[in-house]
Design a protein that fits this description.
Bound molecules: zinc ion
Number of domains: 2
Helix content: 40-55%
Strand content: 5-15%
Radius of gyration: 21 Å
Structural class: mainly alpha
Number of helices: 9
């Protein structure tokens, strides 16, 4: 379901377009470089979290303005808007945290204010326990979220997939309305494999199978430490992005067939 049909105001769309392309995307590139090298410090995480959360604020501003001017649309409270984002953009990545946008928003607010509005975030506090900016801490180039029941790499599990959503090459007013309404958005493309399932792509399929990225953290093989994460007192696990149609024996026989054929 869309937040609105029709168009937002041009100046508002231009502001968001510029914010995404001139601020958020460059910050995102920098963040991914630090993330890939495991060099994220606490101030990097909070800075980028603030930049992502400001985009939410601005989307809220645009949606409120369009819906308030319409006689047919109802104004959506900010809390409902944020909780719809995870669904609207089908946030991929870690399936243990299903409210990434809400958590990002709460972490940002706990960072901005000395005391978090407990009433506004009561559902999240019920899930994660007390929230404050001290839930995030840095360790060996990674920034973790830790509460009574949870402990996981916040940058990889929450910020990484949200940052990816904004990376969808929005270029004009139309794109901004489509983006806000969840019609276009960036994605890791988990679960999509464009093979022809012929012997000529068997080697590629085997390489992808052996190097499959973990959907939860984005790491490959031993670099994934998802098993050490805790979600609601339960251990996390590696979740490789593998082709559901992959069949080891078939692919192997295709590979040997290709070799025979090459001789
Ligand atoms: Zn992992």
């Amino acid at each position: 379901m869309e937040f609105y049909t029709g168009k937002s105001e041009e100046d508002d769309a231009k502001y968001l377009l510029s914010y995404i392309n001139d601020v958020l995307i460059p910050a995102s590139k920098e963040f991914f470089v630090l993330l890939d090298k495991n060099q994220v410090l606490l101030h990097h995480a909070f800075s980028f979290n603030t930049i992502l959360a400001h985009a939410i604020d601005y989307i809220d501003f645009v949606v409120k303005k369009v819906t308030a001017l319409s006689s047919e649309l109802r104004v959506i409270p900010r809390k409902n808007l944020v909780s719809q984002f995870d669904e609207r953009y089908r946030v991929d990545g870690c399936s243990n945290i299903n409210n990434k946008f809400r958590l990002l928003d709460a972490v940002n607010n706990s960072f901005k204010h000395v005391k978090l509005d407990r009433e506004r975030y009561k559902d999240l506090i019920k899930t994660y326990g007390d929230l404050s900016f001290r839930n995030l801490y840095s360790e060996e180039g990674k920034v973790f979220f830790k509460s009574q029941l949870y402990s996981f790499d916040y940058c990889r599990v929450v910020m990484r997939p949200i940052a990816k959503i904004f990376d969808c090459d929005v270029k004009n007013h139309n794109d901004i309305d489509d983006f806000i309404n969840g019609k276009i958005y960036g994605s890791f493309g988990h679960g999509n494999f464009h093979y022809e399932y012929e012997s000529h792509d068997a080697i590629d399929r085997m390489i992808d199978f052996c190097n499959s990225e973990c959907k939860n953290c984005g790491e490959i093989d031993d670099d994934c430490d998802c098993v050490s994460y805790i979600y609601d007192q339960k251990s996390g696990k590696r979740s490789p992005n593998m082709d559901p149609n992959f069949n080891f024996n078939d692919v192997m026989s295709n590979i040997s067939g290709t070799r025979e054929w090459k001789k």
